[in-house]
Amino acid sequence: MPLLEIKNLTHRFEGLCAVSDFNFTLASNELVGIIGPNGAGKTTVFNLITGVYRATEGSICFSGNELVGRTPHQITKLGIARTFQNIRLFKELTVLDNVRIARYGQAIYSPLEALLHMGRYNAEEKRITDHAMELLSIFKLDDTANERSKNLPYGLQRRLEIARALATDPQLLLLDEPAAGMNPNEIKQLMEFIGWIRKTFQVTIILIEHQMRLVMGICERLVVLDFGATIAEGLPMQIQNNMKVMEAYLGKEMVK
Amino acid sequence: MPKLSAVYNNLLGKYQAVIAHKLFWPIFLTAGLLFSIAASTFDILDLYLQLILIYVGINIILTVSLNLINGYMGEFSIGHAGFMAIGAYIASILTVNIFPSSAITFLFPVAVLAGGLGAALVGLVVAVPSFKTRGDYLAIVTLAFGMIVKSGIENIDVIGGPRGFLGMEKLTNLPWVFFWTILSVWIIRNLVYSKFGRGVLSIREDEIASDLMGVNTRQVKVIAFVVSSFFAGIAGGLFAHTIQYINPRMFDIIKSTDILIMVYMGGIASIAGSILGAFIYTILLEILRPLGVWRMVLMPLMLVLLMIYRPRGIMGMREARLFIPLRDLLASKLWRQKKKEISDAPAGD
């Protein structure tokens, strides 16, 4: 059974068709890239999977659960986590709290126990705090645990965002343009980093990217979107030589 | 020897924090309780000063509870006085009309609690629009809510309507105010340092990201509104049994604005700030009393200056160490120690 199966997914914003008839299957442990020009509907697909938008038509099935109609936190609990194109950390909060917030579903205690700091509260808080510190140390962020996340340099903020997403214990990780604003050298490091995350945390990854260098280097399979529809799908090598893809990126005249 | 000094600093930091927590609170609570009992039984504190301290306590409860919504959650509620009115009327009706007057001193806390619970129940209803509207729009909803409460009470003739309600005994005294103030500060601080409190803060920072990180934002909002309105109701009950007469106009937009001023002056998302804000505002209003109506010009002017030079208030987004749980205060220190122990352990173990 595939981990994720998207069938006939369509989403319209007041007449504008952002995603039309999108079909996609993903097996466990795959690393797939979604590419396409600006406004092709890539981020919309992520927003539909994670429940930020509710699909107009179609179905999204994640390890046996229908996702359409569920709220984002329910979907997160099922095991899907994501990062954002423009970093969306909780800026004024500490690095530690950013990660602990993502453990909301893993800390098991009632509101009453929270108000009185009694019962399961202490043990659970200790557990999630230890876990968060451990995760931060894996990502070499433990020295900045008490800093406000807005004070971190850009690269560390990106890293923290991935750490925060992994704190929700996902099976599927959605990375939305992780290489945005990075130079070729940093992109090379990021490629190794993503491969390492995949091995260490045993997650399946879908990657949205503009940087061809990155997707060609690490993705096992690529899906190309344009105007909300899939125009090509296949191995990175096949995509590189696909006429339709070149047209979408460069325009018809340029290709001729 | 750099290594030794690092160890020393580490120990010193831990020592200070532990001392601050382990000794300060028991001493402060015992001293406060003894002082408040002594002051209200024996003739050692002027009645006027006692009254000011009672107002300080009530205002701390109102400020800390509103800060939960306006500061920690980043919403803008202007209806806090409405919850206060509900608590005030419920508690007053209970002590005047329902409870036997012989046992009223003992039943007073029950009446105040009932006022809080009544307000909390209404808070539950007000939480619902917060699922759909945010920012300015929720502010309008809470404004409308305040108006509904005021007009509602004005039209219920059994409880006096616009004439107000009287007949309460002066049941609020310093020890009770001290008790309820400490309770509200303790509970709201506990909430803030729990997963629900972090959820409240994350809604303030980025609601969609918060939802996507697994925070049940609806649950968190309901908890915040219910707790906040509960304590506003408690403050209402205490207030009614201090001045022994209430009418709906006391709980209009002006009263809500007063609480807002204390929140923003003290500082958003800060317990220490709320206490400071309530304290300074209440005391200053009394000190400036000789100025007559001009104090209502001077006070807002001070607020304008504060907003220009310190836009987040005195303690905005910062917290006194006393209110931060030891676990959070020492989290990275303890982690560093643990990591050192692991790396120091003999190899091949």
Strand segment count of chain A: 10
How large a portion of the residues of chain B is in β-strands, by DSSP E? Answer: under 5%
Order of helices and strands of chain A: EEEHEEHEHHHHEHEHEEHHH
Strand content of chain A: 15-25%
Helicity of chain B, as a percent range: over 70%
- Count, helices of chain A: 11
What is the CATH domain class of the largest domain in chain A?
Answer: Alpha Beta
Distance separating the two termini of chain A: 42 Å
Range of helix content of chain A: 25-40%
Distance between the termini of chain B: 30 Å
CA radius of gyration of chain A: 19 Å
Model regions low in confidence, pLDDT < 50 over at least 5 residues of chain A: none
The first-level CATH class of chain B is given as Mainly Alpha
The overall average pLDDT of chain B, rounded, is: 91
In total, the number of domains of chain A comes to 2
- Major sheet attributes of chain A: 6 strands, mixed
CATH A-level architecture of chain B = Orthogonal Bundle
Numbering strands along the chain, what is their spatial order in the largest sheet of chain B? 1-2
